[in-house]
Amino acid sequence: MKPQPEVIVCVGTGGVGKTTVSAAIGVAAALKGRKTLVLTIDPAKRLAQSMGLKSLKGIPTQIPLPNPDSAVVPGRLDAMILETKTTFNNLIRRYSKSPQKAEAILNNSYYQYVSGELAGSEDYMAMEKLYEIKNEYDYDLIVVDTPPARHAINFLTAPNRLIQLISSGVLKWLVRPSMNISLLGLNILGRAPQRVVRLLKNYVGLEIVEELAAFFSEFEELYAGFRARAKDVQSLLSSKKVHFYMVTVPTHDAIEEALYFYSIMKGFDITFAGFIINKVHSVFYDSDALRAEVASLVHGLGSDDDLRKAAEETLSMDRLALRDARLIDYLKARVRLSRIEYRSIHLMMDRELTSIDALVELSKTLEGI
Ligand SMILES: Nc1ncnc2c1ncn2[C@@H]1O[C@H](COP(=O)(O)OP(=O)(O)OP(=O)(O)O)[C@@H](O)[C@H]1O
Ligand SMILES: [Mg+2]
After folding, report:
1. For residue 108, what pLDDT band results from cuts at 50, 70 and 90?
2. How many domains does the chain have?
3. CA of 165 to the centre of ligand 2 (A)
4. Listed residues: CB within 5 A of ion ligand 2
């Protein structure tokens, strides 16, 4: 039997079903007896909806499971929503030398800006939270939903990116220990290299530059802690226990995007486990002979015959299913790796994906992932 992953990270572009698939993987694992957590960072809180809950909390909350297979004792399914800000605040508290120092940073308006707005801080905090949960709880499996990938590598580089920005030469220049904060007024900025000024303008706006200086001097003592932590997070992501799955849908553009992101991810030291192709149309007729038979039947019927309309609908659904299958074959041919998995999830058309039962149905093709 293949080794079971301890963490599954679902990545992919916007709207392909990362949140839904993460929840369904969680359901599949829990129904197989594993103690599972789904960590979602979906700001739209769709996971909560799809689990029939109005909102999720920033701490694990148990989701009641149905028990369709009474022979297997279900495990446990918890879900939680990532609160970027709270995670960041906890990190500051963890690495500050004293509670007072921590408060000084937490109350700094530049910090409040960085922790909420800085591009990528959400990715960073997702991986940070994953690390924290992995160490502090004893889940058999943690499934991580991710924000839509503008660049698939965001969350892979995230642990280092924030630290790089904070400790970059440019910003360090602002916090030389000898530097008096009052010197950091517009005078200095007037003489500062253009890119410092640009950076500050872009990130913070000149008016809070004093707060910025205070922030960096407070923050300096946290560097070592942050750096060590980032290394630990990075090595968790590189471990064989963490499996990355790319979620995509069978449209030409989505498959091309998935291939592009896959080509980037290949360059990282991670376990790329496979593709999950979501919203796949189901084949209606299982042979070409049957298709031809139905098509000729359609021809023989009057144009306003209800039977004809229904048959035409099934034929066109079937055509979509065949097109999906061709796109999936194309994906496989381009990837050409036998050890990765491909799983398809059918497009659910008859009901809304807002109940646990719907997730149970979707989870069937995700078993054993
Ligand atoms: N297999 C499916 N059949 C039918 N509808 C689906 C299926 N999978 C997902 N959906 C629907 O598609 C929409 C997008 O799904 P979801 O929110 O999971 O995508 P996402 O990739 O997490 O989106 P985002 O990038 O915005 O976070 C939702 O309305 C969801 O209910
Ligand atoms: Mg989502």
Report:
1. confident
2. 1
3. 27
4. 18-19, 42
User: Does a structural domain hold residue 58?
Assistant: yes
- Residue 7 β-bridge partners: 142, 242
Neighbours of 342 (CB within 10 A): 13
Lowest mean pLDDT among 216-225, 250-259, 307-316, 332-341: 216-225
Indicate if the pLDDT at residue 209 is higher than 80: no
Ligand 1 atom having least distance to the Cα of 22? 18
Mean pLDDT taken over the chain = 80
Residue nearest to atom 4 of ligand 1 (CA): 348
Residue 62 inside a domain? The answer is yes
Percentage with pLDDT > 70 across the chain: 72
Task: Lowest mean pLDDT of 54-58, 180-184, 200-204, name the range.
Answer: 180-184
Ligand 1 pocket, CB under 6 A: 14-20, 42, 46, 148, 278-279, 345, 347-348, 353, 362
Question: DSSP character for 73?
Answer: -
297 in any annotated domain = no
pTM (two decimals): 0.83
pLDDT digits (tens, 9 = 90+) for 17-52: 998 999 999 999 999 999 999 998 764 556 676 676
How many whole angstroms separate alpha carbon 120 and alpha carbon 329?
A: 34
The residue whose C-alpha atom lies closest to atom 18 belonging to ligand 1 is 17
Q: What angle do CA 262, 334, 263 make, to 5 degrees?
A: 20
Q: Of all protein residues, whose CA lies closest to atom 16 belonging to ligand 1?
A: 17
Assign residue 359 the CATH number of its domain: 3.40.50.300
Domain, as residue range, for 332:
7-158+224-285+316-366
How, if at all, do strands 35-40 and 141-145 pair? parallel
Between CA 200 and CA 209, with CA 203 as vertex, the angle to 5 degrees is: 45
Q: What is the pLDDT of residue 172?
A: 46
Q: How far is the CA of 107 from the centre of ligand 1 (A)?
A: 37
- Per-residue confidence (pLDDT) for residue 174, from 0 to 100: 44
One-letter identity of residue 21:
V
CB 79 within 8 A of CB 56: yes
Q: What is the 3-state secondary structure (H, E, C) of 168-189?
A: CHHHHHHHCCCCCHHHHCHHHH
Assess if residue 294 is contained within a domain: no
Element (H, E) at 309: helix 306-335
